[in-house]
Structures are given as C-alpha cells and as structure tokens.
Design a protein that fits this description.
The complex is a heterodimer.
Chain A lengths: L1 H7 L2 H19 L6 H26 L9 H16 L6 H24 L5 H22 L7 H8 L1 E3 L2 E2 H19 L1 H11 L1 H6 L4 H27 L10 H11 L11 H20 L4 H16 L11
Antiparallel strand pairs in A: 1-2
Helix pairs in contact in A: 2-13, 3-8, 3-11, 3-12, 3-13, 4-5, 4-6, 4-11, 5-6, 5-11, 7-11, 8-9, 9-11, 12-13
Chain B lengths: L5 H7 L1 H9 L3 H17 L6 H26 L7 H18 L4 H28 L4 H19 L9 H8 L1 E2 L2 E2 H17 L2 H11 L1 H6 L4 H27 L10 H11 L11 H20 L4 H26 L2
Helix pairs in contact in B: 3-14, 4-10, 4-12, 4-13, 4-14, 5-6, 5-7, 5-12, 6-7, 6-12, 8-12, 10-12, 13-14, 13-15, 14-15
Classes of the chains: A mainly alpha, B mainly alpha.
Chain lengths: 318, 330
C-alpha cells in the first residue's frame, strides 16, 4: 500500500495523471479536444516551452537560488536574429542556427560571469540582463526590418516529418533523452546535482563550481536560443517580445515537473510533463467560451491549486 | 568559500564600513546624487524646482511599490504580484469614483475601498506563501495572473478617466507647496514609525534565519503574512499615486512595474535573501531608476538606443547595489 502511495506521489506521476484528467476534461468541454491532431498541435506549443524549460531546469538544479529570468529576452532576440539571418531562404538556416547559439551562449556567459565572479544573486543578474536584452531588441528592430522564417524551418515546426509527427516534437524528445542521459549518466550531470545540493562539499570534492555554474547559464542561453529559432518557424515572422511569456512559465513548468527551486533535486523528464500540463491547461482555457478576464482568473487559481501537489516547503518545527 | 576574506576588509575600511553599517543606503544616495548632477550637466533645466516636482510625482508610484516590495523581501520572500495589485486597485478606485459621481466623498470612500482591496490581495499572497508554504516566486506569479484577471473584469480596456478633483489635487499645490511634497513628508513619517515597530524587527529576524526565529518563539507564519499585508497596503498607496499621475484607469498599468520594484529594492542595498535592508534604500533605488531614464533622455541618446542604454545602466547600478550592500552587512 505504501509503495503505491509513494509511487503516486512522484511529481512525474502526478503530472501525467493531471495531463490525462485535463485532456478528459477538455474533451468533455469541447469534443475533439483530445483528438490526435489536436494533441499534436498542443505538443508543438509545449515543445517550445519545454526547450526553454530545459535550460531553466539545469540552472535551477545547480542551486544557490539559481534562476534565469533572462530566458524570455534571449528567446525574443534569437527569433529576431534568426529571422534576419535566414530572411526567408532555406540556405540561411545553418548560419542562423550558429548565430542564435552564439548569441545565447554569449548572454549566458555574461550572466554566469556576473553570478560567479561578482557573486551577484542570479535573480538580480538575470533580471538586469533581461532589461539589457529588451533594450537590444528595440535597437535591432529599428535598424533592420525583422526577417522571415525559411520555408524549411516552418515545415520542420508545423508539418509532419516522420510518422506523422512534426520535427520539433522529435527534437524535443531527443533533447529529453539527451538531458536524461546527461543528468543521470555523465560526470557533468552528477556534478550539477552535487553543486545544487551542497556547493561547499562539491567544491571540497574538487568540482570546479564556478566553471560549472557559468556552463549552466550558457546552456540555458543556448536552449532559449534554440526555442527562439523554433518560435520563428512556428509564427512565420518575429514580432516584438515574442519570448516574454516564457520567462515565468518556464519556471512553473520546472516546478510542475518536480524540480525543487532550492536546487539539487529533480530532473528533466518531469519538466517535460510539466510543460505539457501547462500548455494543455492554457489550451482548455482558450477553447472554453469565457472572456479574457475569466480565463486569467481561472488560470491563476488553477496554477495555485496545482502547486499544492508539488514540493511545498517544510513546516516549521522546533 | 570566500567568506573568510571578509575579515581583512573590516580593518582596511573601518570608518567607511561603520558608516555603511549605520546608514546602509549611502551608496544608493551617492548614485542618486551623481545622477542628479549628470542630469544637471546635460540639461540644467532638469534640476529646476518644477522638473524635480514632476519627476517626484511621476515616480512616487514606483517609490511606494518598491517600499511595498521591501517589506516582503525583509522576510526573505518576494512578491511578483505587487504590480498587478497596483493595477487592480487603480481600476477599482477609478470605476468606483466614476460610478459614485466623482465628488470628494466618493473619492475618499473609493480610496478606503482601494486600501481594503490592497490588504485583501496581500492576505491572499501571505496565505498561499506562508500558510500553504508554496514557493513565493511561483505562487505570487500565479496570484498576479489572478489579480490581473480581476482587474480586466472590472475594466476590460484602459481609458476610464479619474474625476478631476482627484488628479487636480495630486498634481496641484496646497498652501503654496506641490501636493507630492506632502505625500513624501507623510511617507517619511510613516516609514519612520514603521521602522520602529516590532513588526519590522520580526520580519528581519524571519528573513535572517527562519528556523532560529521560530525557535525563539516568533509566530513565523503570522509575521510573513503581515509582511505581505504591508506589501498589499503600500501597493494600494502606489495605485493612488499612479491614478493621480495618469488620471485614468488601466488594467495593465502595473505589469511592467513589478520587476522594477524588485530592482529598486536591490539598488537600495537590501539583500533579496532577506534579513537585511532599509526602506530608505528602496526609495532611493526607485528614484535611481527614474533618474536613469531622465539622464538617458537628456544625454541625447538616439531614441532606438534609449531602452538599451537604460537597461545597461540599471544592470550596472544593480551590481553596484549588491556589492555595496554586501560590504555594509555586519
């Protein structure tokens, strides 16, 4: 009996059960919601959030109040860079990928340097960086017309690729496998958990804590850059601040996946379920016929209720 | 690891350090003075009595919101819904004032209800964070979505004007002095009184070491809820100022202000981890943000570069705020 309850209390199991329940609810409210085509459409949206959340996930796992509020800015920036580099031509996709990854890594590096060398709290550093990125978006937008997605990129994101499933979902699955492998099977992954649960002990054991942390923020920047590129493919052309919505939702996806904001505990598989859960919830709210105010109230309240299922803080004990 | 290195600095900068310990907001004050001087260099006119009054009435809302944020940060919490509480109170009082005819009595009654709404929002936040023990960042983000929904329900689109008597008073003069000066004076008195209450000390104790505070017998949950109540109250006061400044209701007016309020608290030298900070620092931090945008404007920065330069300047002073605040901590 206790084995069953402990199984049911695993965050990923909670998330999967909630996903099934929400899909059922969606089907009840508007028939066709849980159809294969609709689920694929939701998964495309979820994969964008999920890719951003992958970077957020490693930063949070690394502990010491690790959080990256600049992800939304990097997503927007990368969408604009990609649009301008490829400008509607398939031949420009590879240079665009390179340019986006470089930009993401660069801003991640800046975050990491401020956080490790100057010991600025991650929340403050990445918040400040978000302001810089938003300013940079205005500069780029005024200077050059924001470009178009290449047809091949749009096909990759929106059209079926293999087995009727779009390429971006395959990409997401690949990232999921890669993350699981990295976190569970590599030295680098184990070191993330080590610095996340006890930074001092990890340092004493010879883990290059500062380099690790810089690397985590660079990874986060690059994942956001990939998501920005895919977002361009999804929407066709980039518009102002497309990435803004991902900043806090990526953190919620990580929390719904069972990763503790204190660091050192959790994984990416749960985060994938968390991202999907969040997108289904938003999907249901858009299909239900209520106005924007009601939708927001229900969304906020539901998030609070769902949070009750996950890592609540410990009660004070004397 | 680098903690050991702090003791030599004590000897090296003994005098300055002691001064910083006593007045932790000094670095923020220095930054404000430098920015004022820069403003004066680029545009001497910007230091006139008139422009400074204008600056104060524009940024009074951010000042109050930063102070609101400070009280939860004291206890090691954060409130990402402060801006949406501001929006909610803003639309609520504007709609109520209009519905009740816009007379002096209607205005006062609407303001009283606005304060109650602020307190209610603070209570909700305090309940979910302290009593239900949800993580402050994500939980207050969720409540911010809820409050924004409520604000949109009350007023779906921006535009309902505030009654003339309200914004005339806010932007006008009383006994020869601009009205915002009276607000500032009242605020200083209020903050001084609050800083001497037991609650401030208790909030700082909880923020410094929650477990230790609990073990000395402090009602930690109740104290954290009171911190959020103060935050809601000051967010409502901030809403009054923004209503006086913009003279209209806008359900999304506070959305962008939340992160600025957090930045202002950090600029003021308070530690986001709790247990250390001053409200005066946050006040100066909010002024810093206002002055930075004014300097960037008067410097003649090309319009498309203004946001970038402003963001970069804020990032730099944020770092300075953190470094100075760390040096000041005993």
């Amino acid at each position: 009996m206790s084995r069953i309850t402990s199984f049911l209390r695993q965050p990923i199991v909670v998330a999967l059960i909630l996903i099934v329940l929400l899909l059922y609810l969606g089907e009840l409210l508007s028939p066709g919601f849980a159809s294969g085509a609709q689920i694929l459409r939701l998964m495309i949206v979820a994969s964008l959030l999920g890719i951003v959340a992958a970077g957020q996930n490693v930063v949070i796992l690394g502990g010491r109040e690790g959080i990256d509020l600049s992800v939304g800015g990097v997503v927007s920036l990368s969408a604009i860079i990609a649009g301008n580099v490829m400008n509607g031509a398939d031949g420009g996709i590879l240079p665009a990928i390179a340019a986006c990854l470089l930009a993401g890594a660069f801003f991640g590096l800046l975050n990491g340097l401020g956080i490790t060398l100057l010991r600025i709290p991650p929340l403050v550093m990445t918040l400040g960086m978000l302001g810089v990125l938003q300013g940079l978006l205005v500069v780029i937008r005024m200077g050059i017309p924001s470009g178009q997605a290449a047809p091949a990129l749009s096909r990759f994101v929106t059209q079926p690729l293999v087995l009727g499933v779009p390429g971006i979902i395959w990409l997401w699955v690949a990232i999921g496998i890669l993350m699981a492998f990295m976190l569970n099977r590599t030295v680098f992954g184990h070191r993330i958990y080590a610095i996340g649960s006890n930074e001092h002990a990890a340092y004493m054991a010879g883990v290059p804590v500062r380099l690790m942390r810089i690397a985590l923020f660079m990874i986060s920047g690059m994942f956001s850059a990939i998501a920005g590129l895919c977002l361009l493919g999804y929407s066709g052309s980039s518009f102002a601040n497309v990435g803004e919505q991902y900043t806090l939702t990526s953190i919620i996806a990580v929390v719904f996946g069972g990763t503790s904001l204190a660091g050192g505990k959790g994984g990416y598989t749960g985060t994938m379920a968390g991202a999907f859960l969040l997108v289904i919830l938003q999907g249901i709210l858009t299909t239900v016929n209520i106005d924007e105010s009601g939708r927001q109230m229900v969304f906020g309240a539901t998030l609070l209720v769902l949070m009750m299922f996950y890592g609540r803080g410990r009660a004070m004990r004397a | 690891m680098a903690e050991i290195a702090t003791s030599p600095t004590y000897r090296r900068a003994g005098g300055i350090r002691r001064l910083l310990e006593r007045y932790p907001f000094l670095p923020a004050l220095a930054i404000v003075l430098v920015l004022l001087a820069l403003n004066g260099v680029f545009s001497p006119n910007s230091l006139s009595y008139r422009s400074l009054t204008g600056l104060l009435s524009t940024y009074m809302a951010l000042i109050l919101l930063a102070i609101a944020q400070t009280y939860v940060v004291y206890a090691g919490d954060i409130d990402l819904s402060a801006g949406s509480i501001l929006s909610l109170v803003n639309v609520a009082i504007v709609v109520l004032m209009e519905r009740w005819g816009g007379g002096a009595g209607a205005v006062l009654l609407a303001l009283a209800i606005g304060l109650l709404i602020g307190l209610a929002c603070g209570l909700v936040n305090g309940f979910v964070v302290a009593a239900l023990r949800l993580q402050a960042i994500v939980a207050t983000f969720a409540t911010s979505i809820f409050f924004t929904g409520l604000a949109l329900y009350i007023l779906p689109v921006a535009g309902t004007p505030a009654p003339t008597i309200f914004w005339r008073t806010y932007g006008g003069r009383l006994l020869g002095l601009p009205f915002v000066f009276y607000i500032l004076a009242a605020l200083v008195v209020l903050l001084t009184v609050l800083s001497r209450t037991r609650l401030t000390t208790q909030l700082l104790a909880v923020g410094d070491d929650q477990q230790a505070a609990y073990q000395t017998g402090l009602p930690v949950v109740a104290i954290r809820i009171r911190g959020y109540l103060l935050c809601g109250l000051f967010s409502a006061l901030a809403a009054f100022c923004i209503t006086g400044d913009t003279a209209s209701g806008d359900p999304l007016v506070g959305g962008k202000m939340t992160l600025f309020s957090v930045a202002a608290v950090v600029l003021g030298g308070s530690a986001l981890s709790g247990g250390w900070g001053t409200v005066v620092g946050s006040l100066l931090g909010a002024l810093t943000i206002g002055l930075i945008s004014s300097v960037v404007f008067f410097m003649g920065t090309p319009s498309e570069w203004q946001n970038f330069v402003q963001g970069l300047a804020i990032l730099i002073v944020l770092m300075a705020g953190v470094l100075a605040g760390r040096r000041a901590r005993p």
